[in-house]
Recover the amino acids of this structure.
DNA sequence: TTCTGATTCAAACAACTGTTTAATTCGTCT
DNA sequence: AGACGAATTAAACAGTTGTTTGAATCAGAA
């Protein structure tokens, strides 16, 4: 029983690895079962044998990715434990940027989570519940504190999206690649994290200042 | 010659309209020729007859969209003519948000331009040259002035992307739809524009302040 | 009207997709 | 060795895709 996985689990693992890489790079629709099996050096029927169908493989890839990424988020939260809100914000952005921008398999898992938002599949609900909601709730608490507003305030919601938008955007993509700027320098991981931190903290401060002078609040 | 367009140009126009809508909603790969022809009440062979092939139709849709959107950008630039940098920035963001968030056909054309960045086709180069480069150059001039830095400075590049990221993000998408917040209020067009303006201007100001105190510049 | 060229149509085409099948190979236990 | 179940394989399957074909239809000129 336990040892039946001599040959078995090995091609299964190869399929999962190849599928993770390809799905992250091109998305569910653009990756064919044949391409996965070619990359995993397996027969075309291997996907159906081990995972039922293509969607079953995708489901398992995404669930594995969600587990790893969720653990990563927990680390990012733990890194700010006991610190004041501003430092918790810095820690969160820094760790997130590291995992998204650095090369390697961790990067791919993050990419899968982002892709599900841009190009949703039937797994969207699962990913939102397990990955995105916890993140946004945590970050919402921090931003609310920094803005001096309750976490469910609309202004907190918008500020949250502003932060999220920046983290996503700086992932090198076709946009930046041909803008005539030196992309390698602009999107340097460390610089980007510090940029987002400084830019966002200033934005929070602007809200704080506006809230302190109610007469100007309408302008915001 | 001139009047041969009785029946001819009409189905051609219907195909272009249907294709524009569908491509904007689902993207090139997810829209079938048959779906376009069904929506345009035309025969399956109509696309190949009028545009050569599917890609020819997509090319024409995107080129038409680029023309309209480019004109729109010119209007946004003209709206800030002669005004100081901060007011030019406000005008640019406001007009952009209007066109992206408001319902209607204008919205779809913008969406096509954004989609080409997320899911590039062979038309990417054309769209970057005709739509994105002019926009980023104009906005780069404004942001450079507001930051007190030359337009080609890396920090200007990052600030540019921060603004762009926010404008893109607030377009309602699956992310926001299930975050447990009241999305209709958070992404209200007018509020979003003012939020992005306030948030970004504060970010610019932070850079300005940091530049004025060189000792702290390394932190940013 | 008759002719001509452009347009439309139903049908079929070839290539690709995910999936299934039935035979074969492999590892493991008796 | 022999037997059994799990895993792999080549081949085929059914459905969808973009595209082509050749006949039918239409509008306008001679």
């Amino acid at each position: 029983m336990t040892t039946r996985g001599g040959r078995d689990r090995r091609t299964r693992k190869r399929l999962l690895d190849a599928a993770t890489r390809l799905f992250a790079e091109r998305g569910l629709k653009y990756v064919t079962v044949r391409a996965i099996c070619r990359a995993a050096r397996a027969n075309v029927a291997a996907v159906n044998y081990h995972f039922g169908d293509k969607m079953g493989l995708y489901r398992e890839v995404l669930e594995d990715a969600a587990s790893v990424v969720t653990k990563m988020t927990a680390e990012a939260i733990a890194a700010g434990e006991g610190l004041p809100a501003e430092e918790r914000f810095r820690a969160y952005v820094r760790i997130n940027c590291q995992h998204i921008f650095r090369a390697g398999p961790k990067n791919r898992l993050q990419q899968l989570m982002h892709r599900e938002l841009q190009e949703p599949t039937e797994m969207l609900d699962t990913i939102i519940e397990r990955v995105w909601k916890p993140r946004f709730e945590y970050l919402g608490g921090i931003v609310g504190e920094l803005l001096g507003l309750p976490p469910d305030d609309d202004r907190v919601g918008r500020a949250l999206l502003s932060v999220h938008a920046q983290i996503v955007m700086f992932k090198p993509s076709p946009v930046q690649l041909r803008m005539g700027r030196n992309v390698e320098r602009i999107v340097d991981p460390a610089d980007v994290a510090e940029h987002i931190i400084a830019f966002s903290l200033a934005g929070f401060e602007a809200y704080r200042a506006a809230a302190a002078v109610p007469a100007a609040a309408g302008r915001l």
